[in-house]
Design goal:
- This protein is an alpha+beta fold and about 220 residues long.
- It has a single domain, classed as Glutaredoxin.
- It is about 50% helix and about 5% strand.
- Strands 2-1-3-4 form a four-stranded mixed beta sheet, sandwiched between helices.
- The longest helix has 17 residues.
- The radius of gyration is 17 Å and the shape is globular.
Length: about 220
Amino acid sequence: MSEPVFYFSLRSPYSWLAIHDLKTRYPKLLERLALKPFWEPDEELRGALGKHGEAFLYTAMSKEKHLYILTDVRRLARKRGLTIAWPHDKSPRWEVPHLAYFVAERAGKALEFIEAVKDMRWKLGRDICDPGAMEEVGCVLGLDPIELRDAHLDPQIRAEGLQALRACIRAGVFGVPFFTAGREKFWGIDRLHEFAGSVGQEAAPVEMPTAMTGSALLDHAGGCG
C-alpha cells in the first residue's frame, strides 16, 4: 500500500483539531503520514490551473455554515480541553503560510512548522497571512526568517505550490482534514479512527475529560475548507 497521506490546511480549525487528535491518540501514525497542504489559491495560481482545465475542488461556505462551524469548533475544542482564540482574517493571502510550509519541509521541520503556525492562529488569534508572522516562525524554528517571509513571492516555490494544488485535485481533495490510504479516502475528523484502522494503527490510550464517553471525540464530520 502507498504511504498514508494527511491533507491539511493551516486555515482550517478542523485540521487543527485533527493534528491534536493525531498527537494524542495516534502519535505513531502521525510519524508515518505524508503531510500535504491544501489552500485556496490566489488569482495567479487559480489561473494557472485553469489553463489546463483544472479546477480547485472547494466551494465557499454560506454564512449559515460559517456560523455553525464557529459553534461546532468551540464545542469540539472544549471536549478536548482546548481553548480557541478566533482569528480575524482581514485580507487573507493563503499562499503566505502555505508556501512558507515548503521551506520548512525542505529543512526537515514540516510538523514543527505546522505546530507553530496552528498555535499562532488558534491559540493566539494571530493573522498567519501576515508575512511578518512567517518571519517570526522562522526565528522560532531556526530557519531563514526572510525565506519564510517571502516564500509566497518566490517563483520556484510558487511553482512547487502549483504542483501541490494539482496533486490535491488529482486526489479528489475537496475539504480538510482529508486522509488517503491507497485508494481509500476519508474526510473529516470523525473518519480519523477508520483511517487509522485502514493502515493498521490502533489508538493510544488517552485520558478523557470528565463525563465523556470513549466515542465523544468522534461525533462530527469535522470537515471544511
